[in-house]
Amino acid sequence: MRRFLWVSALAAAIGTLAHFGLAHAAGALEGAVDRQALNWAAIIMFFLFVLGTLGITYRAAMQTRSAADFYAAGGGITGFQNGLAIAGDYMSAASFLGISGLVFSSGFDGLIYSIGFLVGWPVILFLIAERLRNLGKFTFADVASFRLEPTSIRILSATGTLVVVAFYLIAQMVGAGKLIQLLFGMEYLYAVVIVGVLMIVYVAFGGMKATTWVQIIKACLLLAGATFMAFMVMQRYGFSPEAMFADAVRIHPRHDAIMAPGALVSDPVSAISLGLALMFGTAGLPHILMRFFTVADARAARKSVFYATGFIAYFYILTFIIGFGAITFLMTDDSFYTAGAGGVINRVGGLIGGTNMAAIHLANAVGGSFFLGFISAVAFATILAVVAGLTLAGASAVSHDLYAEVIARGHSNEQKEVRISKLSAVVIGIVAIVLGYVFENQNVAFMVGLAFAVAASCNFPVLLMSVFWKGTTTRGSLIGGFLGLTSAVAMVILSKAVWVQTLGYSQAIFPYDNPALFSMTIAFVGIWLFSKMDSSVQARAEQAAFDAQYVRSETGIGAATAHTH
Amino acid sequence: MTDEPHLRILRNAQFQDLVRRRSRFAWTLAVLMLVIYFGFIALVAFDKPLLAMKIGAGVTSLGIVLGLAVIIAAFLLTGIYVRRANSEFDALTARLNAELQP
C-alpha cells in the first residue's frame, strides 16, 4: 500500500514536471533563443535534484517505522550533518535572494539583516541547545510542558507553532511561485502545485530522515554555488575587498551612501525591535528547534550549533560579496534591465524581475547560462527543502502535541500518531497550495517578519521561562504566551506593512515596523506576573517539580528515553 | 512522584561545581554576544556618521568592518564555548555520571 502510494505520487510529480516542460517549450518559441537553452539546463538539473531526493525519500520511507524515526530521524543524525541541515533550514531562498538583493540596492543595510539572523545562534548554543536535547523528545512543546500541565501548554505551543508555520509557509509558497514563474517560465499555479506535492511526498513518506537529507544536499549545493559566485567576483578585483567596494561606490547611483547605514532602519525603536525579533525569533522557530532532537545527545546538539553558525556566517559573508558583485557586474550592463519611460534605466529597481533577482542575474554574468541553470535549480531546491521542514514541524505539532496529548489524552499509540502526522502533512500541503494561490497578488513580505515576531514573542518566552525560572506556572505561561502571540499579530496588522500597504488605510495605528520590543516584553512580564499571582495547589506542585527538571536539563540524566508524566 | 534521585544529585558537590562553572561561562558569553550585537544596532540607530567614517584612504567604512567583525565574533564565541564544553564540561559530566552509577 505504501509502495503504491509512493509510486503514484512520484508519477504525479513527474507528470506535472513533464507538463511544465512542454508548456515551457511552447512558450520558448516566442522567446529569445539563448533563454530557451539556459532554461533547459535549469530544468534538467532541477529534475536530477528531484529524482535524487525522491530516491532518498524512498529509502527513508523503508527505514521509518517508529515515531522516533518519523519525528527525529531515529536520533541518528551526527552533529556535523545536523549543523548542515540547520544551516540549510536557515539559508532559505528568501535569505539568499533577499539579502543579496538588499545589498545590491542599498549596500550596508543588507549587512544589518545578515547579522541579526546570525547572532541568535550563539545565544541558542549557550542557553538552549543542550537543555532542549536533554529535556525534549520530538517537539519543543515536550520541553515547555515537562513539569507544567501538558494539555494546556501543548495547545499553546501547537498554536504558536502553527501560526509561525502558516505565515512562513505562505511567504515561501508565494515567493516560490513567483521565482519559478520567472526562472522557468512556468505558470504560477503549476509552480505552487509542484512545490506542494513534492513537500508532501518528502514529509509524509520520508519523515524527518528524508527532510534532513534533502536539506543537507541543498545546503551543500547552495554553499558550492554561492562560493563560486563570490570567488568569481573577488577574482575580478584581485581578491581586494577595497577594490571591489571602490568600484561599487563609483557605479552605484547612491555612490558612497551604500557604505553606511541608510533608510532601512529609520528610528532607534524600530532598529532595536527588529534586532530582538531577528535574534530571538530564531530561538522560537519550531522547524529549527525540532532539529535538536535528531541527534544522539547534548554533546551532538552543541556541535550542530557550532557547525551551523560557521556555515551560516560563511554564507552571509558570501551573500554580501554577491550583492556587491551584482552592483559591479550588472549595473554596467543594460541587458539586465528593462528601460522605464523615455528609455531611462533605473539602475536599482529596473533590474529584470526586481532587485531580488540580483544573485540570479549575477550567476549568468559570472558563469554563463549553464551556471545560471544551476543556481536557478538550487533556488528551487532551497524552497522545497525549507517548506518540507516547515510542513514537518506543523504536522508534528498537530499529531504529537494536539492529537496525542489533547485529543487522545495520552491514550494514543505510536502507529496511530505517525499516521495522523502523515495525514496532517498532506492537509498542510494542500492548504499551503491553496493559500499560495490565494495570496498570489498580495504583499506577503511582512509575513516572514511576522513569523519571527510570533516565534520571539510566544514560543521563545514560554520555552525560556519554563526552563530557567522555577516560579513559572502553567497559568503564567498560558496567559503570557497567548498575550505575546496576540499582541505580536495585532501590532503587525496595525503597522504600516499591513494597515497601510495591504489594507489601504492612510495612517498606521502602530508606528513601528516591528512589534518584538513590545510583544516580547508583554510575554515575559505576562508569564512572570501571572505566575506570581498563581497560588493554586497545581502551581506549587509545578514549582516543586522544577528541581528534577533542572537536574535533567543540566546533566541529561534520564534523557533519551521517553519520559512519562 | 518518586523523585528521590534528583535531590541526591542536587546536593552533590560535583554537580554544583559543574553547573556553577558552566552557567557562569555560558551567561558571560551570552551577555557578551548581546552587548556586541546591540552595541552595533545602537550605532546603526544613534550614530550613523560614525559608521560612515572611512577607515583609511579608500572607501571602506568603519560600519562594514564592524559588521563583518560582529559576524566573525559570533562564530568565534560559539567556538570558544564548544571548546571548553567538549573538554572540561563533558569530563565533569562523565565523572558525575560515574559517581552516581553504583
Automatic annotation (TrEMBL), chain A:
Subcellular location: Cell inner membrane
Record keywords: Cell inner membrane, Cell membrane, Ion transport, Membrane, Signal, Sodium, Sodium transport, Symport, Transmembrane, Transmembrane helix, Transport
UniProt GO BP: plasma membrane acetate transport; sodium ion transport
Transmembrane segments: 41-61, 110-129, 155-176, 188-207, 219-237, 271-293, 305-331, 370-399, 420-439, 445-469, 481-500, 512-530
Entry-linked CDD domains: SLC5sbd_u4
Keyword Nucleotidyltransferase part of the UniProt annotation: no
UniProt-recorded Gene Ontology molecular function terms: acetate transmembrane transporter activity; symporter activity
Gene3D superfamilies on file: Sodium/glucose cotransporter
Membrane topology: Multi-pass membrane protein
Database matches in Pfam families: SSF
Principal localisation: membrane
GO cellular component labels: plasma membrane
Signal sequence, start to end: 1-25
Family according to the record: Belongs to the sodium:solute symporter (SSF) (TC 2.A.21) family.
Protein name, as recorded: Cation/acetate symporter ActP
Organism: Neoroseomonas lacus
Lineage: Bacteria, Pseudomonadati, Pseudomonadota, Alphaproteobacteria, Acetobacterales
TrEMBL record, chain B:
Statement: the UniProt record of this protein carries the keyword Transmembrane helix: yes
Transmembrane segments: 25-46, 58-82
InterPro entries: DUF485, Inner_membrane_assoc
Keywords linked to the UniProt accession: Membrane, Transmembrane, Transmembrane helix
GO cellular component, one term: plasma membrane
UniProt superkingdom: Bacteria
Lineage summary: Bacteria, Pseudomonadati, Pseudomonadota, Alphaproteobacteria, Acetobacterales
Database matches in PANTHER family: INNER MEMBRANE PROTEIN YJCH
Gene source species: Neoroseomonas lacus
The protein, known as: Membrane protein
